Amino acid sequence: METNYLIIGQGLAGTLLAHELMKANESFVVIDKFNESTSTKVAAGMFNPISGKRMVKSWNADALLADTFKAYTELEKLLNCKLLFKQNIYQLFGSVKEQNDLSSRMDNEDFSQHVNLFPNKEPNLNDAFGAFEIKETGWVYTRALIEKMRELLLSNNCLLDQDFDYQNLQQLTDGWQYNDIKAKYVVFCQGYKNKDNPYFNYLPFVLCKGEVFTINCSGLTKDKMIKKGIYLVNLYDDVYKVGATYEWNDLTENTSEQGKTFLEEKLNDFLKVPYEVLKHEANIRPTTKDRKAIIGEHPKHKNMFVLNGLGTKGVMHAPYLAKQLLDLINKNLAVDKEISINRFDKLIIHQN
Question: pTM value?
Fold first, then answer.
């Protein structure tokens, strides 16, 4: 069997890359073993141009937002399901200092266009210091995205439901051979499992476990996301996704009492109404030391690429990153230096 692309992993990165290849009528095969719980499926899938404790506009936010809206609207049509939910974030202030810090940034028009300082008050929330809204935000139903795309790929005979065996990958003069598949290019989109990749394990990933709740809670807004240390995203009816924790030491996929306690304390801090925990989940995020994604060609192996490190901003970054990678491969266009694998070239000397 011959194909243009062999994609390893069908998380958010692999799914958006497959989508771009389908639009370009490029042949590809995805190898991905089904897993009920992955970081993409567990996450709430939020996107937000303003982020971090310092409340700054994210890198390349305008371009990323444009690609976000375009890509997930296209995927809704392709997969015939609702995926993209445009909702403002109703963010509670935690102190007077937070109020003052935000007010001081409002003179910056590029920043202030995304902020409403005087939103309508939401009931059943402890808001002693008030709240503001962030606009041009929302969330993507990532579990449905992954599962529906998987169904489509399986029906088109371009997904193999199996673990990837590195020992069976062999480099050819004009591409790569994996078992009976000959591909021009191989692209690794493995999320945190990159740690086991002998070709790209030199990259400085800093893995981080996140734990989330699914709760039932009545009396809260359904058309906005709520945030104060943690987020609440309405999935349907009175059911909300709540998260997330950040754990750097316990890197198992198991939930913990520590994570449970953290989420409960945060909820109890600002909810005035009772709630019921329906589900508690955990998984590992593929973050990087500089909090930016990594894409590009392996410095030693021609036609071998990586698309990874999407971290907590994956939904907003994945469409843009997939296009950047294909522009590198097909048009030899340079990848943005902030996300290029080339920034880690010095580390390759440590690889066996």
Answer: 0.93
